[in-house]
């Protein structure tokens, strides 16, 4: 257990405070004290301890009133101190929200046990805020059997059992966060938080507050103390996404934390030590950015302990059918429609597409196809796919062409696909395209694609 937790001891008896404080400090806890309920609330508001040990019978404000005031803070366990003859009061305190109670005179060993239980409870409540929805029994892991993805997975599996810092390299949409979660779930930290820090989204003025947290009143708008992401992740894993986009002035602050393993909240004075594992990811060439003076070399070497290169989707096309199957079933389940299949023609298009957006783009295209497909449809066809996937054997679909030329090209492709799907039957193709047969015939003549139409139509 991390012995840097802070305990607030609240009792109007100075001798009892001294005895308990000495005992807890020998065990490695940081102990603050208060002589009544009002002092306790001020201390909780300023420092937010990990546990409160609270006497019930006190002047000015008693323990029951403190418990009532703290009912909106269920993550703060309260251990009640009570005289042996007033156990019924302790039971009432627990009904009001206290975690447990210890009777006076108390056994030091029993108090130790109750404190550890309270810390475990607090850690569980805190972790659930970040782990809810993160750990899913249906988590598929990394989908793929291609050589490149298997090599990346083997490396991830090896490093998962260590505490080494990992740098994930790969294009946008290749699954870097998925790999980071894979490593975390197979590590000794798997029961602790997995916290994502989006380096692009952090503005300069919010970087320290988001990462380190802040004390109440640290700046305008800081109405309450806030824990930062690093503090919340204590014992677990922090994933710095797109670390290559972090500005140089912020890189120095992050480097210090990774080196010293401690920081202060904004507006705070007490060092907070943390035990975290760092996984970083980037779609940029960090070595090149170091050479250009845009990324600190000392931070680069600290992050680049073990690097894993993730393949682009176009480099692992043999995995596309399995990925499609998973995304298709997942999308159907999400929108509560019967499971759909994908036609051989649509599968061919998707396999042959060059996938600039990698796995993320594939997921989005499948989800779009399911959402927009006709309610009676049981199969995804080429017509359900966005236009770029039709243009597989031509130029790059992202190449900008004149408007009218692009319209004609798209019209031609749609009609060609309809003809192929209907075996060249013009009447069926018109029905499929929801066009009048005479209008389709004019388009066929205009676009000079009569060679694809059966003579007996």
User: Strands of the biggest beta sheet: in what spatial order?
Assistant: 2-1-3-4-5
| Overall form | elongated
Helix segment count?
18
Rg, rounded, reads: 31 Å
> Which parts are unreliable, with pLDDT below 50 for 5 consecutive residues or more?
130-139, 387-395
Fraction in beta strands = 5-15%
Oligomer: single chain
Sheet/helix structural class: alpha/beta
Helix content: 40-55%
Largest pleated sheet: 5 strands, parallel
Average per-residue pLDDT, rounded, comes to 82
| Through-space gap between termini | 79 Å
**Would you count the extended β strands for me?**
16
Structure write-up:
The chain is an alpha/beta fold. The protein has helices at 14-26, 37-47, 63-69, 87-96, 108-131, 147-160, 176-185, 204-212, 229-232, 248-260, 286-291, 297-303, 320-334, 344-352, 358-372, 403-421, 426-432, 437-447, and strands at 6-10, 30-34, 51-55, 78-83, 100-104, 166-169, 194-198, 213-214, 226-227, 237-241, 262-263, 272-273, 277-282, 306-309, 341-342, 379-380. The protein has 18 helices and 16 strands. The chain starts with 5 loop residues before the first strand and ends in a 10-residue tail after the last helix.
Record the SSE blueprint:
Elements lengths: L5 E5 L3 H13 L3 E5 L2 H11 L3 E5 L7 H7 L8 E6 L3 H10 L3 E5 L3 H24 L15 H14 L5 E4 L6 H10 L8 E5 L5 H9 E2 L11 E2 L1 H4 L4 E5 L6 H13 L1 E2 L8 E2 L3 E6 L3 H6 L5 H7 L2 E4 L10 H15 L6 E2 L1 H9 L5 H15 L6 E2 L22 H19 L4 H7 L4 H11 L10
Parallel strand pairs: 1-2, 1-3, 3-4, 4-5, 6-13, 6-14, 7-10, 10-13, 15-16
Antiparallel strand pairs: 8-9, 11-12
